[in-house]
Amino acid sequence: MRRLLIATNNKGKAKEIKSILGGFYGRIVTFADMGLNISVAEDGETFEQNAVKKAGQAAAAAGCDALADDSGLCVDALGGAPGVLSARYAGDNATDEQNNAKLLKELEGISNRKARFVCVVALVTGGKVITARGEIEGKIALAPSGNEGFGYDPLFLVPEYNKTFAQMPEEIKNGLSHRARALLALKKLL
Description:
Blueprint: E1 3-6, H1 11-21, E2 27-30, H2 31-34, H3 47-62, E3 65-75, H4 96-106, E4 114-125, E5 128-140, E6 156-158, E7 163-164, H5 170-176, H6 178-189
Parallel strand pairs: 1-2, 1-3
Antiparallel strand pairs: 3-4, 4-5, 5-6, 6-7
């Protein structure tokens, strides 16, 4: 049975990846499932650098295929910030709520709220690295809305649905999210 390690400690992210790649690998596991405690410094300047680094270290530690992603929110009015610093936007141990509050504060009085979620996935398999990128365009809402998802989902408004990611059922979000698009692009490469 072919096994894939998802290189993350983020339960929301792992759930999303499993729901999309569930039929591709016989068994999909996380660090916790394997009893691994791996922390990889996300010190790259790009989403791709961080994803490749995490996947490589995870594959080496687990001895199986490993998939990692790096994703974040890029806001036009903030010059692409928070970008690769999305998870640490309000500090190294910031909560989703703290990151969201900082983003809203920085966008006070700004009318251009155009943004995109970006995700790069990296798969280490058979000694090679395969990467794929996915993006979704949207805008930042004036206030958080919805109880689903994680991260910036309560603020990321998808205009076609007039809902934030956090207001969407998981199956709809997973069908159009940046991570879903990156994973679907990866499947085509495989």
